[in-house]
Design goal:
By secondary structure, the chain is mainly α. The chain is 74% helix and 0% strand. Helix 1 (3-36) runs antiparallel to helix 2. This is Antitoxin.
């Protein structure tokens, strides 16, 4: 097994176990960035938030589009 395969497996496991906390962190970071820029880049921040959550959902072992959220 290569290094990248092992790394992806570890990241997938982390997303499966802690998806909700990761998603909350993404939300907090996006909200903070939006506040600091006074809404000037809301569209770009929203796009980045969606892209990050989509990427994490692909790593989630389940195709449920919730990153472990309940």
């Amino acid at each position: 097994m290569g290094f990248l395969y092992k790394l992806r497996r570890q990241v997938t496991r982390a997303v499966d176990e802690h998806g909700e906390q990761i998603a909350q962190g993404i939300d907090k970071a996006a909200d903070l960035a939006d506040r600091k820029t006074k809404g000037k880049y809301s569209g770009a921040i929203g796009t980045g938030r969606s892209a990050a959550e989509d990427g994490l959902d692909k790593l989630d072992g389940k195709d449920d589009d919730d990153l472990g959220r309940r």
